[in-house]
Design brief:
single chain, 213 residues, alpha+beta, Type Iii Antifreeze Protein Isoform Hplc 12, five-stranded antiparallel beta sheet, two-stranded antiparallel sheet, 4 helices, rod-shaped
């Protein structure tokens, strides 16, 4: 009968088996995998719980549609976009409430930013009326006008001795700031569309002015 394995040889075989199936290297790998899984799970939880960052840039109020000069701006005519801060014009509006119901001095194209100097008046143009810009040569008269003042828009034609009233009892919407090099102040007046056509036609050939009522 063969002698059993020597204690020394048996110990060496046992050590080899433990090294293969349960040695420090295998345990270390398992611990690393478990740690990596825990880190990934924690990162996922942080990303889910963290608030999402909003669009970058500064809010800018722009025209959403083509807007003619003299029109009353509605909320549906506006949109908010995000622009790089260094490209935002001075005086740009940021909220639709700042522009809704006010009158646009000049035309605005879709996507064009709206600034405080482009809009005048605190109230809308009366229903069925148009806002017409009238340039007043007499600066002293312009200083007497404020939004809400009732005026007559008059002209003297080349062959008439008496002034003709183009628009009567018309409310002033706004008196624009004096422009450098311009001949007189620009006043925005609300009037019927028929009167607006007469005033626009007269300003092409005749001098138009305003009288207080």
């Amino acid at each position: 009968m063969a002698d059993p394995l020597s204690p020394h040889l048996s110990e060496r075989i046992s050590d080899s088996v433990r090294a293969i199936i349960g040695g420090p290297s295998w345990r270390r790998t398992l611990r690393l995998r478990r740690a990596a899984a825990a880190v990934l799970a924690g990162t996922a939880l942080v990303l889910i719980a963290a608030p999402r960052a909003g669009p970058s840039g500064v809010k800018v109020l722009v025209a959403a549609v083509e807007l003619p000069g003299g029109s009353t701006v509605r909320a549906s005519d506006l949109a908010v976009r995000h622009w790089p801060a260094d490209l935002v014009p001075t005086g740009t509006l940021h909220d639709p409430e700042e522009a809704a119901g006010r009158v646009l001095v000049g035309a605005a194209h879709p996507g064009e930013p709206l600034t405080d100097v482009r809009l005048v008046g605190a109230g809308p143009v009366p229903s069925g009326a148009s806002a017409v810009p009238v340039r007043i040569a007499d600066a002293a008269v312009a200083t007497l006008l404020v939004p809400g003042t009732r005026v007559d828009v008059v002209t003297i034609g080349p062959h008439d001795e008496h002034p003709a009233v183009l628009a009567g009892d018309a409310p002033v919407l706004a008196v624009l700031a004096e422009e450098k090099g311009a001949r007189g102040r620009l006043v925005l007046v609300a009037m019927s569309r028929d009167a607006a056509t007469r005033v626009a036609s007269a300003t092409l050939t005749d001098q138009v002015t305003i009288t207080l009522r």
